[in-house]
Design goal:
Blueprint: H1 3-11, H2 24-36, H3 41-61
Helix pairs in contact: 2-3
């Protein structure tokens, strides 16, 4: 899976926001949208994992 493409496809609305303003609800909304679009459970988990990795990286660097 192309991680950058997955982030761009599913979190474009977040690009101009500060990471501190992105909430668990925002992530849940992305996952709910994937469910509604018929994405497999595995794809939903991968996208959530990618988002999590980006935020963990940011926390480690802070």
């Amino acid at each position: 899976m192309d991680y950058l493409a997955a982030l761009k496809n599913h979190t474009t609305s977040w690009l101009k926001r500060s990471a501190a303003t992105i909430t668990k609800k925002d992530v849940k909304d992305v996952i709910d949208l994937l469910k509604a679009d018929g994405s497999s459970y595995g794809h939903q988990r991968r996208v959530k994992g990618i988002i999590n990795k980006v935020f963990c990286f940011g926390i480690e660097r802070a």
